[in-house]
Amino acid sequence: MNLRLIGISAGVLIILSLPLAGAIAGPDFAGQDDGKGGGLLSSLGLADPAGGSRTPAPGAPSARQAGPPPQAGPRQPGPSEQPRTDSRCGPELSSPQGVEAQTCILAGEGRTWGRSYYRNTSGRALDAVLTVMGPAGRTVQIRCAVGAGDEPGLCETPREDSAGAPDAYSAVAEFAVPDDEGRLLLRSGSNSPAPADG
Asked: How far apart are CA 56 and CA 73, in angstroms?
């Protein structure tokens, strides 16, 4: 047999056995020894007498420099409870031009706002105007740009202090072509009647 081939094979076996030896020996936490002569690095002669590694990774701090990890503050048990939001939505509507929308009134934590969920498969960018009408003639309006992609999106008004019960509010979203004199493609309301079958 070739002695060179035997030497290479023995070297490969030693290298392949290192992860197994590390798993059997257990981790050497922060270079601390267990009273039995040190961890895996010490047994291979790769640690200095002070317990640190002779070959640290480039740019990696040693165990003596690192210190304890920073504390992020007291941990909360479990996820925080989300505030309750009530919603009143009209039906999902669609236009022959490829716009789908559903408009809702939402209320929670003493505030009321409007939201319209939409999907635009028309192949062109659109403008959406969402209007919320409340008691005593209160009105909030916002304009949203609706991209040409067919990904679902939403348009939402700011949250205003409630001035009455949620059923005293209504919302309407209008989707129009901006460069065609505002040609209306779809109007969706929180109080819209459901489309008739037929």
From this structure: 31
Measured at the CA of 94, the angle between CA 90 and CA 97, to 5 degrees, comes to 150
CA distance 65 to 80: 36
Which of 130, 138, 137, 133 is CA-nearest to residue 103? Answer: 130
Q: What are phi and psi of 96, to 5 degrees?
A: -60, -20
In which band, very low, low, confident or very high, does the pLDDT at 74 lie, cut at 50, 70 and 90? low
pLDDT tier, 31 (very low <50, low <70, confident <90, very high otherwise)? very low
Please check whether residue 102 is in contact with residue 188, taking contact to mean a CB–CB distance below 8 angstroms: yes
Beta bridge partners of 112: 107, 160
Judge whether 140 and 127 are in contact, CB under 8 Å. Answer: no
End-to-end alpha carbon distance in the chain: 89
Output the DSSP codes for the chain. Answer: --HHHHHHHHHHHHHHHHHHHHHHH---GGG---SSS-SHHHHTT-B-TTS-BSSPPTTPPPHHHH-SPPP-SPPPSSPPPPPP-EEEE---EE-TTSEEEEEEEEEETTEEEEEEEEEE-SSS-EEEEEEEE-GGG-EEEEEEEE-SS---EEEEPPPEE--S-GGG-EEEEEEEETTTTTEEEEEEETTPPPPPP-
pTM above 0.90, yes or no: no
